[in-house]
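Bumping with the actual sequence this time:
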Amino acid sequence: MIFDAHQHYWHPARGDYGWMPVDDPVLARVYGPADLAPDLAAAGVARTILVQAAPTVAETEYMLGIADATPSVAGVVGWVDFGDPASRAVLERLAAHPKFLGVRPMIQDIADDRWMLRDDVQWVYPALVDLDLTFDALGFPRHLPVFAELLARHPKMRVVIDHAMKPQIAAGLDGFEDWAEGMALLAAQTSACVKLSGLVTEASEQWSLDDLRPYVDHLIACFGPSRMMWGSDWPVVRLRGEYGDWLAAAQALTGGLDKAAQAEVFGGTAARFYRV
């Protein structure tokens, strides 16, 4: 059975999805477990990790409510206010929930590229280690050097790089070398894992396997299957295709791996990293 390490549910009327275009025909609608269930069944996906899509504690509590009622949700990656040290108490409260696994700040939406290194947010990283929680690293290629510095400071923190740090695939290979160098550095100098997710939405609408292959091959070479985990990024993936389209593409792009290695990418790594 396959493990989906990254998906979302949301309800735009909640009002805290500031990044979401209000008139987007794909994104700006309600997505819940009943919408994803047929895709999970068709793909043979047993469990998923539900990841935050809004920078509020209310979002985290909303997702934990869904997780409580949805057996397929193995755990939740939520959000707390990194800029407020008093949020340590919130983090401790959330950590008491058996399906709360970790946090994800929405770094890609923050103007200051070095925000994660500011003095006022340093409390959170040792807190994550103390509470045995994970850190989902969300950003763009320009954030790679900053993440390298952050992870060097906190080597005990369990970190996974979301969406392979969003390489700009639609632009061709112009930025490939810088992205590849930064990812190789993180792989070599840290224990971080990486999510094989979000690549199709960084590609053009007419994406092909050949567009994605250099990026996937580089991730395999640098991180290896035991540090890679597949995620659908549903429903965002629907901007470029359906759930099964991306799963089939990812399986084709990792088809050169043996069965044991494929089992790591499509299940073992995520289960081990998130401890579910």
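The tokens above came from a reply further down the thread. The CA atoms of residues 168 and 231 lie 18 Å apart.
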